[in-house]
Write a structure and sequence with these properties.
Elements lengths: L1 E9 L2 E15 L4 E15 H18 L2 H7 L10 E15 L6 E15 L3 E17 L14 E3 L2 E17 L8 E16 L1 H31 L3 E18 L3 E15 L2 E14 L6 E3 L11 E11 L4 E6 L3 E5 L1 H25 L4 H7 L5 H6 L11 E14 L5 E14 L2 E13 L2 E14 L3 H7 L12 E13 L5 H19 L16 E14 L2 H38 L5 H24 L10 E15 L7 H11 L12 E20 L7 E17 L6 E7 L6 E7 L3 E18 L4 H12 L14 H8 E17 L10 E14 L2 E13 L7 E19 L34 E11 L11 E5 H14 L26 E10 L2 E6 L6 E7 L2 E12 L10 E22 L15 E16 L4 H7 L9 E6 L2 E4 L1 H24 L47 H11 L12 H5 L2 H6 L4 E17 L8 E15 L2 E3 L2 E19 L14 E2 L1 H4 L10 H5 L8 E5 L12 E20 L33 E14 L1 H15 L6 H17 L5 H36 L4 H43 L13 E17 L6 E17 L4 E14 L8 E5 L11 E11 ...
Parallel strand pairs: 3-4, 9-10, 15-17, 16-17, 21-22, 28-29, 33-35, 34-36, 41-43, 42-43, 50-51, 56-58, 57-59
Antiparallel strand pairs: 1-2, 2-3, 4-5, 5-6, 6-8, 7-13, 8-9, 10-11, 11-12, 12-14, 14-15, 14-16, 17-18, 18-19, 19-20, 20-21, 22-23, 23-24, 24-25, 25-28, 26-27, 29-30, 30-31, 31-32, 32-33, 32-34, 35-38, 36-37, 37-39, 38-39, 39-40, 40-41, 40-42, 43-44, 44-46, 45-46, 46-49, 47-48, 48-49, 49-50, ...
Helix pairs in contact: 3-4, 9-10, 16-25, 23-25, 24-25, 26-30, 29-30
């Protein structure tokens, strides 16, 4: 049947247009075949038009329906068993349909052909082929309009489905027979080309309408089909699908379109395995649809794809439920928030379409679905994985060859993640992933690199169960595990890259995504969160690197290259010089100069070329250093365990309260956003931090194990604590605001760690690099949006970290670098802790262990352990001074900038105001009193070089750091960070020790040193810091000024020894066994207090109770001092070395030439003693000042100070009636001046005693005092003459003084043990208990009494063999004054200095204002003295006075001459400022000496290090010897030039001061200045001369107003003056005729009259002979009453061993026998043996040369150990003699009475006159002088005696006149008269010599 040209039309529009239709059916015996052919059919269907007719038709069918018809319908169709063949071909069909109000759509295709065969041989076999060509389904309003076919490779919007070609071949085979076991088989093969699918709202509406029309039938059929499918037997199937050029579009009216392009899709499916293969997958966005068509490119050609993938293969194995996914190379994802919003909208639109269709197909499920899909699909996805439990999990395998993901978090900030060969597999409950290389980059910088990454998510792991065992508190036994393993992790941050901005943007985007996709969960009911998994992290190697500035690195490398090149070029120049010199030798003058110039020019060019070549090849072999900081870990293993006991917010809050109990918990509780708690266990093999390429690690930690809890919480911010971050999404969304929580993440911890080795190295030289590192760290974290000033690091750590940290460290080291070179490894201070236990609690650090502090230096002092503290417990307490509670960190509320509260004008808002610390009080306590098993004593070992090294170390550590990379040039205008050192307000230090030993050696050879030993001790110090702003408009750092406000020390049982050894300086370091220890002092307790200067108000309040206030107060109990010649030499040697070093340091400083700033315009007024205010005082830079003088107003402070000083009269000695004499004493006058500005020091001694031993005599003198006070005052600087000096005065008050001495009968001391008095004999006079036998035997408190001594510290005398000493001076009081003047002016007082007053009419100046007055002065005053001595004690006292007390430094004259010469040079030079350059040159020379010495020491250090390995290397030993000699020579040169420099600078400063005040140098070269003055004054003294037993008296001498003064001058001359107001001598011999031996004739004792005056001027010695320039004796008329017996006893006392009967002395040998012990003694050489055997050296006084027959007792003379050679004899003879230039003794009237022996004649009241004697230019011994006086006096006196005797005889009419005529009688009388005269002369010598011998007998 055929029909052509059928046309139906209605209302002018064609409904159906059909061109041709052919249908045929053919039935044969074999088969049944049918065919249908249709061509060009166009149908337009409008439902509005047909609805009426369809309605009528429906009614009709309902009405005509009858049961018959229904039965007819139920008739079965006959079964056809023959094969059926059906074929159809439909071409050129277009159908447009409009259903109701839905948009119209149209379907058209070029052709569809279908061939179908149904065969029934042994089985039912069906086969079909379907071919579709160019199928297109259009939707939209104009879709019914016919169009031309769309162009190739283009997509026209509105075409929902386009198929270029579709071919489907399929066959279905069903075997017959019920018993057959074969399955049905289905084969499908499909090929599609040019598939385009577009999903849009229009498509969904059209489909929904179609499905709604077909809805009920399709629903039923679907159900039935589903049931039948379930009942059918198993089916074997195979599908082969291939799609080429597939494009999937989603179209949205709002956000444009999205496109998914698949170049090729291949699906191979079967019942067992299914495989999906994709080639060329791209996801792209078309953000705005402006054109009608969209080109369809190949996948690689699509521009800006969001996702692109070259190949993807997915395989599914149904039998094992396994899915394998393989991604080819080139997986790239380019993501950004706007793109995400586009995709999100497209996905939402697609899901809405799906929901619409689902609601149409399954209308019964609509209500429930409508609720679930109201928002997003998250609920569906959440509900999906809730199948029945027995269902097996899907096994997944994923492999990606290369992937690169890029996420733009802002327009210009992006994060990239690149991975290679990623494999991921899931089997059962475990997930495993592996990636050999993974890199994360930020903004194009590769920052994170991971290698060998392995991730495992396991349901459980046996290893983790073992890790839980050490924590018994854990409740959960098993937990799932995340295992992360990395071969290496490296993090690299480029220089000045702002990582924090990108990271912050990324976190903001993450928060936005979270809010976008979990919006519906926010209000959902919270379900219990499952326990998070345990974490096991393993990292083989971790490194974190901050890269350095390339410019800086190249600059440094170029500098090193230039430095090396300069050395190399110098070598080349040297070679060329040598060659030129050789050529000159060869050619002579023929060598042209131009040729030489060319040679040198070519060398210069060559140098430049070589430098350029080396510069270019600089990084050829070695790569350029890149790292600024490298932090590396090796063998990191971290275990984090979760547990039910601390999971959940409530449990976490409990943990927080437990770990941080000190912080007040908010009453309303904590609302936490983030809360977690984990038990941590961590192992690290090595932890290393290195700065740049410095040779030492900043941190080096080996074998670190850590365990403990860690809690992290972030508080939920209040509305004001949420900042808004803007995200730019573009149109149509605009900007989105993300709320960010501002409170920080805080950590709470309780860690215990064990470390094998912990080393920290730090020094100020690393500070510049550390500043750069700080700037890099600042770029890692974004500063808070709160506008408050940022917290410093110490407050930030208090805010973020809370809890305890315990560390047990086997070996801990801190190296403090001591140089400015960061590459130096030899100079450092090394703190070495062993077995250190460290505990860090909030606000406290506790260190327990053994501490050694070593000085490491490249010299022979290397590895000097100067501090050894065993069992030390060091506690550092930190007290943070805040406005609020320093521990209340919960109350810190950060505020966003838009929520700031109002603050007063001029103030800045500070959210941390209550928490921020204003200052820090640090308290350090070092406790050594812990008892442990080992007994080790704390020790301190110091060398003078160690102390100098410490000074350099301190200077290095307190130096001001330079600003690094700051300012506009570096774009860094942030305010500089405050240093922790400036944050301290108060620092207190406490030390407790059970015992302590201190050794100080002046040099490495240990020649001289001090040893201090102390038992129980306690030291406390407190200092405060104030920061002083600098003057001027330039912004500068504040000056730190430290002052000690309090210091308290208590020490008990202190012993000080001086040590000396004969070792030479260049000897190797060994503790010499010959070191002699001599006792210097010991005491039972020492208490020291240091107070800060008080304010005026405090002084006012303290006036009544404590009117005198002292900065330093020292209280000593039971002080015992030994002062011997050995001690004296060691002490002077130590002081000399210290002084030289101090002078050298001062003269080499840059301040040496600056001098004092003198303002001549200031009015010359007497300076007030008010302290200068801080405005006028020049600040002291960089030197911690311990003066602690607070600023006081000049009025109130001066008034208070004035009142304070007026009350100091108690310290000034007053005399009773003889005040006139004491007023003349310079010491008292100087101490009474009222210019004191600081009462510096008060020393109080209780029960002190001092043992004195001479050089020439055995035995000792013990001086004791019950109470002693020593007061030091500092006075204001003043002009003395033309010199500015600062005065310091010492006042000493001694109460209850007593002097004891050994007697001749004392045995020699054994073992060198000291004799000490018992305390009961020193204390104030007390009531005696007469019950004690011991006290009855002793002689009370009287002079001459015997007292037992003890040799031990603690034992009483009864416990030992008591040795007795005799009291030679009974209890008395003593006053001593010492005034010293210094050129060093305190800088704080410099502003008060006025120019000196120049008076035209100069009146008599005050004594102290003269140049002679302003000299060092010593004054000693005794009021009443009761003295008793025997001859041996007298000799011993003279020896002590000469050799110990009156010892002055040698070499003064040479120094003075040099100084005077320099002064003269300055005066005559035309331009004195030229001297400045010579000083600078000399300074440079001295500095070079110092540098050379350091260089030699370093060379010797390296040699000694080499010798440790090779101790027998001869070359090294020889080289060491040479270096040692060279070092000694350098030291000698340094000493000479240093002294010269000192003189030059001192004179230049004086000259500068005088020039500044327009003064001329008045001193001529011959001017001589006074350098020292010594004064002794006794108001009244009684001296008892006793026999050798010390008890029987010989004579008693009474002296009143005794004054002795000695003036030393700069030319080494000295003036001695002895004045005596009154004296008498009494004869104490039994049965004496005359009781009064000697007295002045006048009985007047007024204070103005002198009984005796002695004056002597002594010049420096010449050739060892002392020169007496002037010697004068003045005596008042005397009455002498003498007996022969008394004279003999007196001569025996003063001249022991001399035969009184000898008239003349013959030879020099006999003269030496008659020398008195008062002969001058020169300074003995250094003593190197013990007290028992001091050898006689050259230069001894003549008394040391006395023979045994000299009469001084053997026990009191020391025997020579060495033979005396000729040179020694010559020196001793020279020392015996004095050169007398001028002697004058005016005449003295005498009234003489004499009682001779039994046979001799007695005289009575003879009136004689001793003539005036003068002598000129004689070289005599003192005995020669006495004999000359005797001889000349005798000549004059004999005549007077004879004349007087004759006159007396004639007056009495004696009958013996005849006897006088005979010669023999005359001779006898003459002899008697001469004897009388000799007695007189001898008496005068005996009388005067006590004064003369010790005073004038000094050699200079």
């Amino acid at each position: 049947m055929g029909r052509d040209g059928l046309l139906l039309s209605q209302s002018r529009q064609r409904i159906v247009c059909l061109n041709s239709l052919k249908a045929s059916v053919q039935v044969t015996t074999i088969d049944l075949s049918a065919s249908l052919v249709l061509n060009t059919c166009i149908i337009h269907y409008r439902h509005q038009e047909f609805s009426h007719w369809l309605h009528l038709l429906a009614l009709e069918t309902q009405g005509s329906s009858s049961p018959v018809l229904k039965q007819r319908k139920k008739r079965t169709f006959p079964q056809i068993l023959a094969p059926i063949i059906f074929s159809t071909s439909i071409s050129n069909v277009n159908i447009s349909i409009q259903l109701g109000d839905t948009p119209p759509f149209a379907l058209g295709f070029n052709s569809i052909s279908l061939d179908y065969q149904h065969l029934r041989p042994q089985s039912i076999h069906q086969r079909g082929v379907l071919t579709v060509d160019h199928l297109c389904w259009r939707v939209g309003s104009d879709s019914h309009i016919q169009r031309a076919p769309h162009p190739p490779n283009m997509h026209v919007w509105g075409e929902a489905l386009v198929l270029d070609s579709f071919t489907l071949q399929g066959s279905y085979n069903q075997p017959l027979g019920l018993s057959s076991t074969q399955s049905d088989t289905l084969f499908l093969d499909c090929t599609i080309r040019g598939l385009q699918v577009e999903a849009s709202d229009t498509c969904a509406q059209c489909l929904s309408r179609i499905l709604s029309l077909m809805g009920p039938q399709s629903g039923k059929s679907a159900v039935s089909r589903h049931s039948s499918f379930g009942e059918s037997v198993s089916l074997l199937w195979k599908v082969d699908l291939k799609v080429e050029d597939m494009n999937l579009f989603t179209l949205s009216a709002l956000v444009g379109a999205s496109e998914v392009r698949l170049d090729t899709l291949t699906i191979l499916g079967s019942a067992e395995t299914s495989t999906v293969g994709i080639q060329g997958l791209v996801l792209a966005l078309v953000k705005s649809v402006t054109e009608k068509m969209q080109p369809c490119c190949k996948a690689p050609d699509i521009p800006t794809p969001v996702l692109s993938l070259s190949m993807l293969s997915i395989t599914y194995h149904s039998s094992i439920r396994s899915l394998e996914v393989q991604c080819g190379a080139g997986l790239t994802l380019l993501w950004s928030p706007p793109d995400h919003m586009y995709l999100y909208q497209h996905v939402l639109a697609t899901l809405q379409c799906r929901d619409l269709l689902r609601a149409t197909v399954f209308p019964e499920t609509v209500p429930s679905l409508a609720l679930e899909t109201s928002g997003t699909t998250s609920e569906l996805e959440g509900r999906a994985p809730e199948p029945l439990p027995p269902k097996r999990l899907l096994n997944l395998t994923l492999e990606v060859s290369t992937a690169k993901l890029t996420a733009f978090v802002a327009e210009d900030k992006f994060i990239t993640l690149a991975a290679e060969s990623v494999s991921l597999s899931r089997h059962g409950g475990s997930l495993q992933a592996y990636c050999p290389e993974l890199a994360a980059g930020f903004d194009g910088n590769s920052i994170f690199n991971f290698k060998e990454v392995e991730v495992q998510l396991l349901p459980e792991l046996e290893e983790m169960i073992l890790h839980r065992n050490p924590f018994p508190a854990l409740q959960t036994l098993r937990n799932r595990v995340w295992l992360l393993s990395f071969g290496s992790v490296s993090v690299e941050f480029p220089y000045q890259y702002d990582f924090s901005r990108t990271l912050d943007e990324a976190v903001g985007v993450q928060k936005w995504l979270k809010g976008l996709h979990q919006g519906t969960r926010a209000w959902a009911s919270p379900s219990p969160v499952p326990l998070p998994p345990d974490l096991l992290l393993k990292v083989e190697h971790f490194s974190w690197v901050f890269l350095d500035d390339v410019f800086e690195v190249k600059l440094h490398d170029n500098y090193e290259l230039m430095k090396d090149e300069s050395k190399e070029s110098a070598k080349r120049l040297q070679l060329l010089d040598a060659k030129v010199a050789a050529l000159r030798k060869q050619h002579g003058e023929l060598l042209p100069a131009r040729k030489i110039e060319e040679l040198y020019a070519s060398l210069e060019r060559k140098n430049i070329e070589i430098y350029i070549q080396r510069s270019r090849r600089l990084y050829g072999n070695t790569p350029m250093r890149r790292a600024l900081l490298t932090w590396s870990l090796a063998g990191l293993e971290l275990v984090a365990l979760a547990d039910a006991s601390f999971h959940g917010p409530e449990h976490v809050v409990e943990q927080v309260q437990e770990l941080d109990p000190g912080s007040p918990f908010p009453p309303e509780g904590l609302d936490l956003v983030i809360q977690w708690c984990r038990m941590l266990k961590c192992n690290v093999k090595s932890f290393l931090v290195r700065i740049r390429d410095y040779p030492r690690y900043l941190f080096e930690i080996r074998d670190w194990r850590l365990m403990g809890r860690l809690v992290g919480t972030e508080q939920s911010g209040q509305p004001c604590s949420r900042r808004r971050q803007i995200l730019h999404l573009g149109l149509p969304w605009g900007n989105v605001a993300v709320e960010r929580n501002m409170p920080p993440l805080k950590f709470y911890h309780d860690f215990h760690s064990e470390i094998f080795q912990y080393t920290v190295v730090w020094g100020p030289c690393w500070d510049p690099a550390w500043t750069l590192i700080g700037q890099c760290v600042d770029l890692l974290t974004k500063p808070s949006a709160d506008p408050s000033p940022p917290l410093p690091w110490w407050d930030k750590s208090r805010l973020l970290f809370h809890g305890d940290w315990h560390m047990d460290i086997e070996q801990a080291n801190l190296h403090q670098l001591a140089t400015e070179d960061p590459y130096n490894t030899t100079e450092n201070m090394h703190w070495e802790w062993s077995h250190l236990s460290f505990h860090w609690k909030p606000g406290q650090f506790v260190f327990k262990g053994d501490l050694d502090i070593n000085v490491r230096t490249a010299s022979k002092y290397d590895d000097c352990c100067f501090l050894h503290l065993p069992d030390l417990c060091m506690t550092l307490d930190l007290q943070w001074l805040c406005h609020g509670n320093p521990h209340d960190h919960h109350s810190v509320t950060l505020r966003a900038p838009e929520f700031l509260p109002e603050v007063p004008l001029g103030q800045l808002h500070d959210s941390y105001r209550a928490f921020r610390s204003e200052n820090l009080n640090l308290s350090i306590k070092m406790d050594l009193t812990r008892h442990s098993g080992t007994i080790s004593q704390p020790r301190i070992l110091l060398y003078s070089s160690t102390l100098r090294w410490m000074q350099n170390f301190w200077a290095t550590w307190t130096s001001v750091t330079r600003p690094i990379c700051r300012g506009k040039l570096f774009n860094n205008l942030k305010p500089s960070k405050k240093k922790l050192g400036q944050h301290y307000k108060q620092l207190s230090y406490t030390a407790l020790f059970p015992q302590l030993q201190v050794h100080y050696w002046a040099s490495f050879a240990q020649q001289r040193g001090i040893q201090i030993e102390c038992s129980q001790g306690h030291v406390f110090t407190r200092g405060t810091q104030r920061l002083i702003p600098q003057a001027g408009t330039v912004m500068r750092r504040l000056i730190s000024d430290w002052s000690v406000t309090q210091m308290v020390s208590d020490l008990s049982q202190v012993t000080v020894h001086l040590m000396a050894s004969p070792t030479e300086e260049n000897a190797d370091h060994c503790l010499d066994p010959l070191v002699t220890k001599t006792h210097l002092l010991s005491l039972s307790s020492l208490t020291y207090q240091r107070h800060s200067n008080r304010t005026a108000e405090e002084e006012l309040s303290a006036r009544d109770g404590d009117p005198t206030f002292h900065t330093h107060q020292l209280h000593l109990v039971d002080l015992r001092i030994s002062w011997t010649t050995t001690n004296r030499d060691i002490a002077f040697g130590l002081y000399d070395g210290y002084k030289k070093a101090a002078v050298l340091k001062r003269n080499l400083s840059t301040e040496a030439l600056k001098g004092l700033k003198i303002d001549p315009q200031m009015p010359a007024k007497k300076p007030k003693r008010g302290v200068p205010t801080s405005a006028s005082a020049p600040p002291r830079v960089n030197t911690p000042s311990f003066s602690g003088q607070p600023d006081k107003g000049s009025s109130g402070g001066a008034y208070m100070l004035q009142k304070l000083i007026e009350e100091t009269d108690r310290f000034v000695v007053f005399t009773e009636e003889e005040s006139g004499m004491s007023d003349q004493l310079c010491g008292i006058a100087a101490c009474q001046t009222d210019d004191i500005y600081n009462r510096n020091c008060l020393i109080e001694l209780v029960n002190c005693q001092m043992v004195l031993r001479g050089a020439e005599t055995e035995g000792c003198v013990i001086v004791s005092a019950a109470k002693a006070q020593l007061l030091q005052c500092q006075h204001h600087p003043a002009w003395y003459g033309d010199t500015l000096k600062q005065k310091t005065s010492w006042t000493c008050l001694l109460d209850g003084m007593q002097y004891f001495a050994t007697t001749e009968s004392s045995p020699t001391e054994q073992d060198g043990r000291q004799l000490w008095l018992e305390v009961k004999n020193i204390e104030e006079h007390r009531q005696r208990s007469l019950d004690s036998v011991q006290e009855l035997m002793e002689s009370g408190q009287a002079v001459g009494g015997m007292v037992t001594t003890t040799t031990d510290w603690n034992q009483p005398a009864e416990a030992q063999q008591a040795q007795q000493v005799q009291r030679i001076i009974s209890r008395c009081n003593c006053r001593m004054y010492y005034i010293s003047y210094s050129h060093d002016i305190d800088p704080e007082l410099a502003t008060q200095i006025k120019p000196p007053e120049v008076l035209e009419n100069q009146e008599k100046e005050d004594l102290l204002k003269k140049q002679e007055g302003a000299v060092d002065t010593f004054t000693l005053i005794h009021h009443e003295l009761e003295i008793s001595t025997n001859p041996a004690q007298y000799a011993m006292i003279l020896d002590i006075v000469n050799n110990l007390l009156l010892h002055v430094e040698p070499k003064r004259k040479e120094h003075s001459e040099k100084k005077q010469r320099v002064r003269f040079q300055l005066e005559i030079s035309s331009n004195p400022e030229e001297q400045r350059s010579s000083i600078l040159h000399l300074q440079e020379a001295v500095r070079q000496h110092v540098a050379q010495i350091r260089q030699l020491e370093k060379q010797m250090y390296s040699i000694m290090k080499s010798l440790q390995d090779d101790s027998k290397n001869e070359n090294l030993l020889d080289l060491n010897q040479k270096l040692q000699l060279q070092l000694n020579q350098e030291k000698a040169n340094l000493q000479l030039e240093s002294e010269e420099l000192n003189i030059l600078i001192r004179c230049f400063k004086d000259f500068q001061l005088q020039r500044a005040n327009k003064m001329e140098l008045r001193k001529q070269q011959e001017d001589v200045s006074v350098v020292r003055r010594t004064e002794f004054y006794f108001a009244q003294a009684r001296w008892r001369l006793t026999e050798e037993d010390g008890q029987l008296g010989i004579a008693e001498l009474e002296l009143q107003r005794f004054l002795y003064s000695k003036v030393n001058k700069s030319d080494d001359t000295a003036e001695h003056l002895l004045e005596l107001g009154w004296f008498t001598m009494n004869n104490l011999l039994p049965n004496a005729v005359y009781k009064v031996v000697l007295r002045p004739q006048s009985s007047c004792q007024s204070g103005r009259q002198l009984a005796l005056r002695l004056f002597s001027k002594v010049r420096p010695p010449v050739g060892g002979i002392s020169v007496k320039e002037h010697f004068e004796v003045n005596v008042v008329p005397l009455t002498i009453q003498l007996t022969h017996q008394f004279f003999h006893r007196m001569m025996g006392f003063f001249f022991p061993g001399r035969s009184v009967e000898d008239d003349e002395v013959g030879d020099e040998e006999d003269k030496s026998k008659l020398v008195t012990t008062g002969i001058p003694v020169v300074k003995p050489r250094q003593l190197i043996a013990t007290d028992d055997a001091v050898p006689l050296g050259p230069g001894k006084g003549v008394a040391q040369g006395l023979t045994r027959s000299s009469g001084v007792r053997r026990s009191f003379r020391k025997s020579p150990e060495h033979p005396v050679d000729d040179i020694d004899k010559m020196k001793e003879r020279a020392a015996m003699n004095n050169s007398f230039i001028y002697i004058k003794i005016p005449q003295v009237p005498l009234c003489v009475s004499y009682k001779g022996e039994k046979n001799s004649v007695d005289w009575g009241d003879l009136n004689l006159v001793l003539p005036c004697l003068e002598y000129h230019n004689n070289t005599w011994t003192w005995l020669d002088f006495a004999m000359a006086v005797k001889r000349d006096s005798r000549k004059a006196l004999v005549a007077q005696v004879i004349k007087e005797k004759l006159r007396l005889k004639s007056a009495t009419g004696s009958e013996v006149r005849g006897k006088l005529e005979t010669k023999s009688d005359l001779n006898m009388q003459q002899q008697e008269e001469e004897e009388k005269a000799r007695l007189l002369i001898g008496l005068s010598v005996g009388d005067k010599n006590p004064g003369k011998k010790s005073i004038f007998g000094r050699r200079k």
